[in-house]
Amino acid sequence: MTVDEGVGRQGRESGPGSTVELIVLGAGDAFGSGGRNQPAFLVNLPSWAFLLDCGATTLIALKRLDMDPAPIGAIFVSHLHGDHMSGIPFLFLQYQFLTRRHEPLVIAGPPGIEERVEGLWGIMYKETRDMMQRRFPVQYLEFEPKRWTGIGPVEVLPLPVSHQHGEVAFGYKVKAGGKVLGYTGDTEWTDTLIELADGCDLFICESYLYERKVQFHTTYKEIQAHRSALNCKRLLLTHLHDDMLARLQDVPDEVAYDGMRLPL
Ligand SMILES: [Zn+2]
Ligand SMILES: [Zn+2]
Predict the structure, then answer these.
(1) What is the Cα–Cα distance from 156 to 176, expressed in whole angstroms?
(2) Cβ atoms within 10 A of the Cβ of 165, count?
(3) CATH for the stretch 19-263
(4) pLDDT (tens digit, 9 = 90+) per residue, 206-259?
(5) Ligand 1 centre from 200 Cα, in Å?
(6) How far is ligand 2, taken at its centre, from the CA of residue 98, in Å?
(7) How many angstroms separate the alpha carbon of residue 111 from the centre of ligand 1?
């Protein structure tokens, strides 16, 4: 699907002076390091909302913050690892049984997003998927790399990052309500992060480990080494492993935590 087809364009454009708020629903990793939730960020616009990633703990995090899941119009999934998308079936349950919604839920991500999410939904709640009519519309979208795509009132640029063998992982730049957000998803250091951060009001960057190198993830030392090239107004570190959590006293940059709210 392309920009012109305008998936989920039911949201209203945000006018001047409108507020955009980012709420950290999960600043942790796949291992629940530090008791933190798995990755998820809620971005609230005046009449619409979207998620960046949706780890297993996302619905719990929304309810802990007393947030209504109804306005979520889209989920932008960075890649198909479970800590970034396995919360989607729980949102489906919520929309099937508790929260009425009529606007489509757009689920957009790398190639294979529909098959993976529908497969997971069927594994977790087979009888609901197979026996019941879905009470809410879902639209899947495979992003085209490096192409701005309009979804609801926002525009999204997916840039391939370096995180997996054989599957695509995206970092996203999102224009929303007059602000620009960047999000790396999971990746090892690549100069694509410089492009992602460029001009962002807020750049959410994975900083999995402090300095110990593992394949496909970024260390804080690498971010520090490239810090002057990251042309963003505000940097927020996330996806923290125990190794990074143990060194926070050595980290002058801003670090995300579950429940953190950032008006933009
Ligand atoms: Zn992850
Ligand atoms: Zn991953």
Answers:
(1) 9
(2) 6
(3) 3.60.15.10
(4) 999 999 999 999 999 999 999 999 999 999 999 999 999 999 999 999 999 999
(5) 22
(6) 30
(7) 17
